[in-house]
Write a structure and sequence with these properties.
- This protein has eight helices and no strands.
- By secondary structure, it is an all-alpha fold.
- The protein has one domain (13-128): Orthogonal Bundle (Globin-like).
- The protein is globular.
- The protein has helices spanning 12-15, 18-35, 40-43, 51-64, 70-75, 80-84, 91-107, 112-128.
- Helix 2 packs across helix 7 (91-107).
């Protein structure tokens, strides 16, 4: 019987507070990228204005975290690797991106268990984006 199946819990999207929570996380991520010298390497890979980057990451994460597919509705399949190929991304850039996101999650008081799960997934994706040796 279906009653014996475990009920799914809230999605990461819901646990982060839906669209407003994801937007807050993304905004803090880009604020840190703009403010912290430790993230200057990845900041240089972005346009002068981060407005478009903020929107695109917000839209992408909403769907990736189990919410509405806002990015796909606007642009189709994310094709993450192809879209990032023009940028030199190595270990240093991957690690800066991760450190920036980890700090943003910590500052936004993301539940540590959820932050750990997200960090694993973020790392896998960030590592897959690498297109230079170091």
């Amino acid at each position: 019987m279906d009653d014996d199946l475990p009920q799914p819990g809230p999605t990461p999207f819901e646990r982060l507070g839906g669209e407003p929570g994801v937007r807050t996380l993304v905004d803090r991520f880009y604020d840190l990228m703009d403010l912290e010298p430790d993230f200057a390497g990845i900041r240089r890979l972005h346009p002068t204005s981060l407005d478009g980057s903020r929107d695109k990451l917000h839209w992408f994460l909403c769907g990736w975290l189990g919410g509405p597919d806002l990015y796909v509705q606007r642009f189709g399949h994310p094709r993450l690797r192809a879209r990032h190929l023009p940028y030199a991304i190595g270990i240093a850039e991957r690690d800066q991106w991760m450190a920036c996101m980890m700090q943003a999650m910590q500052e936004q008081a993301v539940d540590p268990a959820l932050a750990g799960r997200l960090a694993e997934s973020f790392f896998g994706t960030a590592d897959w984006m690498r297109n230079k040796g170091s």
